[in-house]
Design a protein that fits this description.
single chain; 80 residues; mainly alpha; 89% helix; rod-shaped
Length: 80
C-alpha cells in the first residue's frame, strides 16, 4: 500500500471532516453575519454588570428608607 493510497483511503475524509468542524466553530465564534459567541458573551457581561449596578441601587434605597424610618420612629418616641 503506497502512502498516497493510504492518504486517499484513511486521511482525506478525516481531514475533510476536521476542516468542516473547524469552519462551523469559526462561524459560531465570529457569527458570519449573525451574532456570534463573542458578541453574545459581551452582551451577557454588559447585562450582568447592569443588573449588579441596579441591585446595589435597590439595596441602597432600602437601607436609606430603613434608616429614615428608624429616625422618624426615634423622633416620634422622643416627642412623647
Amino acid at each position: 500500500m503506497t502512502e498516497q493510497h493510504q492518504y486517499e483511503r484513511v486521511c482525506r475524509q478525516h481531514f475533510h471532516d476536521i476542516n468542516a468542524k473547524l469552519d462551523r466553530l469559526d462561524e459560531a465564534v465570529r457569527g458570519n453575519g449573525k451574532p456570534g459567541i463573542n458578541l453574545r458573551l459581551e452582551l451577557l457581561e454588559t447585562a450582568a454588570a447592569s443588573r449588579r449596578r441596579l441591585a446595589w441601587i435597590v439595596v441602597g434605597a432600602f437601607v436609606s428608607a430603613g434608616a429614615s424610618a428608624v429616625m422618624q420612629l426615634v423622633q416620634f418616641i422622643g416627642r412623647q
